[in-house]
Amino acid sequence: MQALKATQAREINKADITEAETLVFEGRVLSQTGKQSMEPGEFYFRPTAIPVTTQPGWFAKLLGAKPVNEFKIVQTVVMACPYCATPLMTTSGQTVEHRAPLTISREITCPYAPDAPHSFKVVEGTIMTA
Ligand SMILES: [Zn+2]
């Protein structure tokens, strides 16, 4: 079992990360004002469109209605893994129950370490091993 490198979830400004990335131009770093990477436990909110298929009711089907494909915007969280700092995005099975302090409904398992699996939960801004 690995040790958590962070026990507090800290919201960061995503623009800081994006800025740091875009300022590396043609192999040269033009500016290092932004943060270069996320620290374990840092996160930001990211609205994500997921495809949803709505089936028509039986009566509408009788009238020839077809399933409707739509996109639904869900709030996901991108968090630097509190064990290995790799940015992880929550899936549709993990809902944000509370934004501040952050609470995520289900545990998150880091997919980037198949040899040393690690998962964690975030409840009221506190990161715990799961
Ligand atoms: Zn990890």
Q: What would you say about this model in short?
A:
11% of the residues lie in helices and 39% in strands. It has helices at residues 14-22, 58-62, and strands at 10-11, 24-25, 28-29, 42-54, 68-80, 87-89, 96-98, 103-104, 108-109, 119-123, 126-129. The chain is elongated and about 60 Å long.
What would you say this structure looks like, in words?
By secondary structure, this protein is mainly beta. Helix content is 11%, strand content 39%. The protein has two helices and eleven strands, in the order βαβββαβββββββ. The strands form four sheets. Strands 1-4-5-6 form a four-stranded mixed β-sheet, with no helix packed on it. A three-stranded antiparallel β-sheet has the order 9-10-11, with no helix packed on it. A two-stranded antiparallel ribbon has the order 2-3. Strand 7 (96-98) and strand 8 form a beta hairpin. It is elongated. The site of zinc ion has 8 residues, from loops. Zinc ion binds at residues 81, 83-84, 86, 110, 112-113, 118.
Key terms for this structure?
130 residues, mainly beta, 4-stranded mixed β-sheet, 11 strands, 39% strand, binds zinc ion
Low-confidence segments = none
Shape: elongated
User: Strand-and-helix sequence, N→C?
Assistant: EHEEEHEEEEEEE
Helix content: 10-25%
Helix/strand class: mainly beta
**Radius of gyration, taken over Cα atoms and rounded to an integer in Å:** 19 Å
**Hey, roughly how much beta strand do the residues contain?**
35-45%
Quick check: average pLDDT? 85
Identify the strand order in the major beta sheet: 1-4-5-6
Total DSSP helices: 2
